[in-house]
Amino acid sequence: MTDLAALQRFAIPGSITIDAGCGGLPRVSIATPTCRGEVYLHGAHVTAWQPTGQAPVIWMGSQSWFAAGKPIRGGIPVCWPWFGPAAEAGQPAHGLARLADWDLSSVTVDADGTAIVVLRLALPAPASDVRLTARFGRRLEVELAAINTGSAAFTVGEALHTYLAVADVRRVAVRGLGGAAGADRVAQPFAITGAEPLTIAAETDLLFEGHTGEVVVDDAVLHRQLRVAKRGSRSTVVWNPWIAKAARMPDFGDHEWPGMLCVEAANALANAYELAPGATHRMATVIEVL
Predict the structure, then answer these.
(1) Across residues 137-144, what is the average pLDDT?
(2) pLDDT interval class at 237 (50, 70, 90)
(3) Residues 6+ apart with CB under 8 A from 284
(4) DSSP characters for 70-85?
(5) Looking at the 3D structure of the chain, how many domains does it have?
(6) What are 116's strand-pairing partners?
(7) pLDDT tens profile 174-186
(8) Cβ(261)–Cβ(236) below 8 Å
(9) C-alpha distances in Å from residue 107, one per residue of 118, 132, 135, 136, 138
(10) What is the pTM of this model?
(11) CB under 8 Å to 162, separation ≥6 — which residues?
């Protein structure tokens, strides 16, 4: 459902508004005593979360496209049902979900002020029913649930490609990856073992396999820590494009890279899984300011 007039039935006076956002794309905006937030139906894409009294936690690029058939840069892109380049020629990188227009299923506000937005995407191939539930409150929880509605199993690679806002990525310490094994996707094919803490000093694209724990991003400039926990995820990705790659990306401002760091809950590459007919898989990321 993308008709704005029809979507108004989901609005909640004083808390939830539904309007045309950037590029005229439908969005749900949250303004409660606990936080402000935003999610677009295009890609089921969370583009803002700011707890009351805090600086914004989710980073958005100033050069992002907001257009049909193009991904949104920043926020929390939904990579599904594959992560990275497509196996088939002509298919988009990071899957179909982040380019699709999702349906808005429900919007509610709990007694504690948490706003809950549920979006749904039905796909014919692979035959699936995908739901994204975003809970905006004193913490942000985003859950991706996929049901195989077909008669054949298929392989899923996925990520909640979360862009965190930081003051200066060069002064950030990432804790919780010490000893985790994975791959350096910039310096392929070199394997890595996570440092404790991990710091960022160059283009970074690290995929830690079999990592199920939480990560804490210690921002020395903003004097805050962001805790990123997860469920149903066996991969953690840490990414920053740095100078040269940011300059090559047409939807990424040349000088914006110091203000973001991606810490992603994922089931990627070796951690992709098979979804049997009738089966459901859930993956979630939970972010809070410590």
Answers:
(1) 98
(2) very high
(3) 141, 142, 143, 144, 160, 230, 231, 232, 233, 265
(4) SPPSBSB-EEBS--SS
(5) 1
(6) 108, 135
(7) 999 999 998 999 9
(8) no
(9) 6, 12, 10, 11, 17
(10) 0.96
(11) 58, 76, 142, 228, 262, 263, 264, 265, 285, 287
Go through the chain and tell me how many residues it has: 290
Q: Are 57 and 289 in contact (CB under 8 A)?
A: yes
pLDDT at 191: 81
Q: What pLDDT, on the 0 to 100 scale, is given for residue 12? A: 97
Answer yes or no: is pLDDT of 109 > 90.
yes
Closest CA to 236 of 259, 257, 215, 266: 266
What's the pLDDT tens digit per position in 12-63? 999 999 999 999 999 999 999 999 999 999 999 999 999 999 999 999 999 9
Q: Domain residues for 83?
A: 4-150+157-289
- Reported as a pLDDT band with limits 50, 70 and 90, residue 1 is very low
How far is Cα 235 from Cα 212, in angstroms, rounded to an integer?
7
Backbone angles phi and psi of 212, in degrees to 5? -115, -5
What CATH code is carried by the domain that includes residue 245? 2.70.98.10
